[in-house]
Amino acid sequence: MADIVIEARHLFFAYNGQKVLEDVSFKIPAGDFVAVIGPNGGGKTTLLKLMLGLLTPTRGEVRVFGRPPREVSPRVGYVPQHVETHLHFPITVRDVVMMGRLQPGLKWPWPSRADRAAAAQALARMGVDHLAQRRISDLSGGQRQRVFIARALCARPEILFLDEPTAGIDPQGQVDLYCLLEQLNAELTIVLVSHDMLALSTHVKSVACVNRRLHYHDHPELTHDMMETMYPHTPGEACPVELVAHGVPHRVLKPHGNDS
Ligand SMILES: Nc1ncnc2c1ncn2[C@@H]1O[C@H](COP(=O)(O)OP(=O)(O)OP(=O)(O)O)[C@@H](O)[C@H]1O
């Protein structure tokens, strides 16, 4: 059986007294590709930040490689949501990726030959090495997202966390990105926050449904009961999951909502 790389035990979290996560326990094995899904405001990003050590639980604990998350940060990569905030800074793609090598305890000179080689390798792995000299502001949404993933890969992480990586990318770009993530999953554990049921349709191995509480399923097939718990809907109205699936047929869902 695979080693457990992430474990949460009776985790609670609140922002200023407002409960967001309640009694969350789960184990993620090495090599997993888990989709974290759930409604808006369900607590997905908060959970990711707890696994990254960016937030501290109100109660309970999270362990990554058996340690508090902050102690193992060089072993994990993170592609946050909405990374486009500082894009107009005049910086090249290669420089952005190289920033992934900036770690606590960094030795000068930086970037070293090893840093440059790691950046080149990460860019090639994401299929964007030809863009290395371009300004980040000049790229398409899909190209940019690959660059940000390359930045996370540059530090050679063992776990990759991604928060809504396909937001704003066209449908074909999304499929291509999932295929790339699937290739990366041969070497890395991946934790992917997504609203997009397409993410589940072919690529992930397990699903964590988060809506204040968490249900972890070690297979990607969703059941009717699960969907009702996670996305309650009014009889006669389209199921919200159908809406986010953009009408794309999805094998993971058994009949639900208007289908049933
Ligand atoms: N920094 C913060 N301060 C106070 N409340 C917050 C903060 N960040 C998030 N929240 C609240 O916590 C709840 C969970 O937010 P979170 O971002 O984890 O949800 P999410 O499932 O990722 O949502 P979405 O799908 O919309 O991105 C929401 O009600 C949100 O308004």
TrEMBL record:
Keywords from the UniProt entry: ATP-binding, Nucleotide-binding, Transport
Coiled-coil spans in chain: none
PROSITE patterns the UniProt entry points to: ABC_TRANSPORTER_1 (PS00211), ABC_TRANSPORTER_2 (PS50893)
Gene Ontology terms for molecular function: ATP binding; ATP hydrolysis activity
Pfam families for this protein: ABC_tran
Domain ABC transporter: 6-243
Similarity-based family: Belongs to the ABC transporter superfamily.
Name by which UniProt lists this protein: ABC transporter ATP-binding protein
Source organism of the structure: Desulfatitalea alkaliphila
